[in-house]
Write a structure and sequence with these properties.
Layout: E1 2-16, E2 23-25, H1 52-61, E3 65-68, E4 92-94, E5 99-101, H2 107-116, E6 120-125, H3 132-143, H4 149-156, E7 167-170, H5 185-202, E8 207-210, H6 223-232, E9 238-245, H7 251-255, H8 257-278, E10 286-294, E11 306-307, H9 318-333, E12 338-343, E13 353-355, E14 361-363, H10 367-376, E15 380-387, E16 390-393, E17 397-400, E18 402-409, E19 414-421, E20 428-435, E21 440-448, E22 468-469, E23 476-477, E24 479-484, E25 488-496
Parallel strand pairs: 1-20, 2-3, 2-12, 3-6, 5-11, 6-7, 7-8, 8-9, 9-10, 10-12
Antiparallel strand pairs: 1-15, 4-5, 13-14, 15-18, 16-17, 18-19, 19-25, 20-24, 21-22, 21-23, 21-25
Helix pairs in contact: 3-4, 3-5, 5-6, 6-8, 8-9, 9-10
The structure holds alpha-L-arabinofuranose (AHR).
């Protein structure tokens, strides 16, 4: 069998992990909201119309922050359409997805839903058709206690206490020609800066995220990011990154997505650090990877002017789940700068959770690696000294065939190790040395693998692709031999001996 070695040492901590790296995203897109999280007619809906079966799948996923309401939807959305008595809310055309928006779910419903889902909101303001003033009014409606026009309106609408949303995004993908009222870097940067000033005047305790490039492939990348950062540096706390991958016929390339994401993050970090120097700032700009996932965008079929159309309902395979696992290793290994990340999205539209209208819930393959890392990859992340072979790829050259992640939670005394084997032909024996954490007891070992990389879960066979328990030969000590199946994702959890 092929051999590899990984050494982790307690003295080589990368960073504490901000739990918000396990965030997700609900956009008014397809059936994410309507017949996804909100379906008053469903037999398991609660008194507010929220599907409790979906809430429970989300609670089990441990998602500490959810971005809302978009996405591309945001740039043509007037938040005022979604407040007040439901029967008076207007039906509108949504320019982003060419759907009908009934506005039966708005910012107040989101606040209630987020509380029930054990999460907090990351609220995005419209900088497409919207103005800095509209954004200020939304912040006033949500975060000011009382005594002004918009805060008193919220109270009139039945919400005495402010929602107190802490994280706010200054628009969405404003570099993209597909965006309603997209802008040049200079125009966006000025609009974002002026909006940021208003939002922080309204509530100085909030944190702001400016739009970075929509992807590495944009012609304006990374010049867009430089311009935005230099113009907005003193006013913002994060620059955003968005990144999607899809299988296009080359397995080695696709499985190496984790490597590409690392490169993207490093370029944005470098650009942010350049802007820090240029603006003579002491502040280190943090990163918000507020959209990432596997997305089969080329297969997307837009259905014109329907309400809650089934769009972008990707059915994820075992290989997709392996890629999601790999991307998570990259995100958490960069936790010193990536403080927030949102799996895009959460329900139905390019999502790990799928619902039938008036029916059941299905967990796609990608649900599982996300759940494992989100639940157990807590505390701090440690450097992995990894020695393994490389795989030749067409897109990225030679890429290490293993992607690893080591975390330790001081509170629980648990050490978690995650590893993706991207080699589709060979099993690999990995010698894992965990130094300076004391004697460890292996408490759980699970693997996601299989002969068919294209296997999916379905309502007929909902557990076809789920992690399986493994028994390890050696259960305690500081050195462990892990047999990594070809094309697999493995999680091993250890507890410090008391
Ligand atoms: O998540 C789906 C879409 O991807 C979002 O609306 C947009 O921001 C991105 O292009």
């Amino acid at each position: 069998m092929k051999q590899a070695r990984c050494t982790v040492n307690r003295h080589f901590k990368i960073s504490d992990i901000d739990e918000r790296v396990y965030g997700s995203f609900i956009e008014h897109m397809g059936r994410a909201v309507y017949t996804g999280i909100y379906e008053p007619e469903h037999k398991q809906a609660d008194e507010q119309g929220f599907r409790t079966d979906v809430l429970s799948a989300i609670q089990d996923l441990n998602v500490p922050i959810v971005r809302y309401p978009g996405g591309n939807f945001l740039s043509g959305y007037d938040w005022k359409d979604g407040i007040g008595p439901k029967q008076e809310r207007p039906k509108r055309l949504d320019y982003a997805w060419l759907s009908i928006e009934t506005n039966q779910f708005g910012i107040n419903e989101f606040a209630d839903w987020a509380q029930k889902a054990n999460t907090q909101g990351m609220i995005a303001v419209n900088l497409g058709t919207g103005t800095p003033q509209d954004a200020g009014y939304l912040a006033e409606y949500c975060n000011v206690a009382q005594g002004t026009y918009w805060s008193d309106k919220r109270r009139e609408h039945g919400y005495e206490q402010p929602h107190a949303f802490k994280v706010w995004c200054l628009g969405n993908e404003m570099d993209g020609p597909w965006q309603t009222c997209s802008l040049s870097a200079e125009d966006y940067a000025k609009k974002a800066r002026e909006t940021a000033k208003i939002l922080k005047w309204v509530d100085p305790s909030i944190e702001l995220v400016a739009c970075g490039s929509s992807s590495k492939e944009m012609d304006s990348f990374p010049e867009w990011d430089r311009t935005v950062l230099e113009t907005c540096y003193p006013y913002i706390d994060y620059i955003s990154l968005h990144r999607y991958y899809e299988y296009e016929g080359d397995k080695a390339d696709f499985l190496a997505s984790y490597y590409d994401l690392d490169d993207f993050i490093h370029t944005i970090k470098a650009t942010a650090d350049y802007a820090k120097a240029k603006t003579r700032s002491d502040k280190v700009m943090m990163l918000s990877l507020d959209e990432w996932n596997v997305w089969y965008i080329k297969h997307m079929d837009t259905k014109r002017w329907q309400w809650a159309p089934a769009i972008a309902e990707d059915v994820y395979s075992l290989m997709d789940a392996l890629v999601v696992g790999g991307l998570l290793t990259t995100i958490v290994n960069n936790a010193d700068r990536v403080k927030m990340a949102c799996l895009a999205q959460l329900v139905n539209a390019l999502a790990p959770i799928h619902t039938q209208p008036n029916g059941r819930v299905l967990k796609h393959t990608t649900y599982y690696p996300f759940q494992q890392v989100s639940q157990f990859g807590r505390g701090s992340v440690y450097k992995n000294n990894l020695r393994c072979d490389s795989i030749p790829t067409n897109k990225y050259g030679h890429v290490p065939e293993l992607a690893t992640l080591s975390t330790f939670d001081e509170n629980s005394g648990e050490f978690a190790f995650f590893v993706l084997n991207t080699n589709i032909d060979d099993d690999i024996e990995l010698l894992l040395s965990i130094e300076e954490f004391g004697e460890l007891q292996c408490i759980d070992q699970q693997v996601l693998s299989g002969d068919d990389l294209f296997a999916v879960n379905s309502f007929e066979s909902p557990e076809k692709v789920i992690p399986k328990k493994q028994t390890s030969t050696q259960t305690s000590g500081t050195e462990f031999v892990l047999a990594l199946a070809k094309a697999s994702w493995t999680m091993v959890r250890f507890k410090q001996a008391s």
